[in-house]
Amino acid sequence: MGGDHAPAEIVRGGVEYARMSGRKVLLVGQPEPIERVLADLDTSGLDLEIVPASQVIGFGEKITSVRSKRDSSIHVGARLVRDGKATAFVSAGHTGAVMAVSKVIYGLIPGVDRPALPAPLPRRTGGYTILLDAGANVDCRTEHLRQFAVMGSHYARRIFGVENPRVALLSIGEEDTKGNDTLREVARILRETSINFVGNVEGTHLFGDRADVVVCDGFVGNIALKVGEGIAEAIVGMIRDEVTKTFFRKVGAFFLRRAFGELKRRTDYAEYGGVPLLGLKKVSVVAHGRSRAKAIRNALRVGDAAARGRIAERIGADIEELHRAEERLVH
Amino acid sequence: MGGDHAPAEIVRGGVEYARMSGRKVLLVGQPEPIERVLADLDTSGLDLEIVPASQVIGFGEKITSVRSKRDSSIHVGARLVRDGKATAFVSAGHTGAVMAVSKVIYGLIPGVDRPALPAPLPRRTGGYTILLDAGANVDCRTEHLRQFAVMGSHYARRIFGVENPRVALLSIGEEDTKGNDTLREVARILRETSINFVGNVEGTHLFGDRADVVVCDGFVGNIALKVGEGIAEAIVGMIRDEVTKTFFRKVGAFFLRRAFGELKRRTDYAEYGGVPLLGLKKVSVVAHGRSRAKAIRNALRVGDAAARGRIAERIGADIEELHRAEERLVH
What we know:
Chain A is α/β, with parallel strands linked by helices. In chain A, about 50% of the residues lie in helices and about 15% in strands.
């Protein structure tokens, strides 16, 4: 029931994934609107089931009021995963609500203090750089950042297939002496673990090929993402302004339309679909609020891969190693 | 003597500004290389003077070693301003060195704790949004951010001619409740001053027309700028990659060359030249390390305008008002 195009596009994405994967897809929400969408689709031979949830959480709702809506589609979906009736939960709804509800229903991996939200950033050379935390945690201490490094590393490995992900800290200079006390402390401990820690990177390197995972606190991460979004829109807008100024430029723009189309595809969130919340015992995947069927289909694929890759168990093991390194350095 | 193209382009910029403005320009540095550049230029009727400085500070030097080079072009230039022999100092050299030396030689405006470095960001609709601090202060307390708001407001007014600059805080949501404790405290006090405080803006708004001045700490500011730079390069690079893939696209690109040229001009730092360090008793302007004559000429214009607009005195008066507001709210 979540997202700008719910339930139609969400249901369509679910149906498409059921067809592609041969997996069973549970559609959680108000049965009638879901049934109306299904009636228009070819669902023959697919394993689909509607699981009723009477409540809907709106985009504007506060987290405090969300918690009391215990029969929302988010609550019901997460409970299906907790109870072993589903392997992963996908939602294009209220991100904060998905996080809060998933955290309560699944619980955190032992040794993890806070869940993190990763963001894949498209690179010029192809592939993605994963930035985390992307906004879930505003004020972070050193132990949170270290845990993000472990979680991001497993995400890059299991979902994007990076063999030995290079992990870096987002800072204001590449030297270890740059940045602040928190970052220096994080670096010191990461060097003692099996994480492939490559040091500091700067904001300019996020869209290059310096690191596969870039760690920062949620405040900085959110600003970095929003600045990126803002400047991308501004540049594309400025190009459009300039391009349509004269007849000859319009001719040029005609020939370039496909190039711009491919650029858009390369930077489209629907390509990777959604991101799993990291640090929880089970899998919830957050899809963009503007998701259409393709994004949902890909988000379901991500959820499936995260569950099959046993991300939670693997993160748990590495968090233990991290804590041992912390103890060695402190004592 | 500072910058990638020193001394040739720096001297040329000085000569151009002397011609345009009719003002006297002092060229500070090693006399021989400066004289060699001047010999090739038409300087008839211009009021130019070489002021010798025997030492040069390199880009890689540490701030601690910089302080002992007391006859560097930065030291000599700042002393000329302190002693009333010049109204403003411009350098394309080591930014940290210009800041450190200017701070020691000029002193801070009473009530200002730290100087700030502003960064003008080009908007799609024309004009600039001023982001500060752009990297001078890594860890900031609430009082520093409030002072940046005052300083940025005067900079927008005197250098960019904005009548009643809208000042905002860079945060992760527009509501006052978003962000962190520091930002909430800053907002509470700014509302009590005569500053035209408009609340929080997000990273996406930096390149739009929501605010004229956007305040943040230097860590966040540096990351925002570097992310912007990185994504701009990535987008332009991706467009270039796509555009040159087929013959028809190359034809399109030919027609669009001028449009890209204009876009480049709109986002070129040489257009505004350089930025004054804010919070000091006298004027030092930092120009880009890659500055050529045009950027230096414009940086000299900025220095002149900052001195004539008596930015330091006006900041001083408003900092007093700020301290009175702080006291009212505390008591």
